[in-house]
Amino acid sequence: MKSNIDEKYMRIALKEAQNAVILDEVPVGAVIVKDGKILSKGHNLREKSNDPTSHAEINAIRKACKKLNSWRLEGATIYVTIEPCSMCAGTLLQCRIGRIVYGALDPKGGAIESSLELFNAKNINHHPEILGGVLKEECSQLISSYFKSKRNK
Q: Which residues are catalytic?
């Protein structure tokens, strides 16, 4: 169930996605929150870092784990502007994130409900709470505008 708190943190993730636009990166932003406090933020940095794993979620997860001095993010929530891909969803599974909240669907690469349904897989050992569609119009518009501008160049 969506709350004002979810929208608050998704707006912060959208600001993080705007940071990616400034760097000419695909505009995806992520924020990890635990106990009402922001642990970390991240945005895509694949082009700048030449690292295919430098997605917003992975960057935020790395920072949060370092801050907590633990690979486990139990009880934390990640807010991400676009449905996580298979790599990011798998990492969220491995770090035992408590909750995943995302904005827009990713029909081509989403691994929560679009292309794959990772958390419905048989025999996985962790099932976070999942909420999609938070500020989906704003999230979708940001990424659509980015790719439209790229096509028009």
A: 57
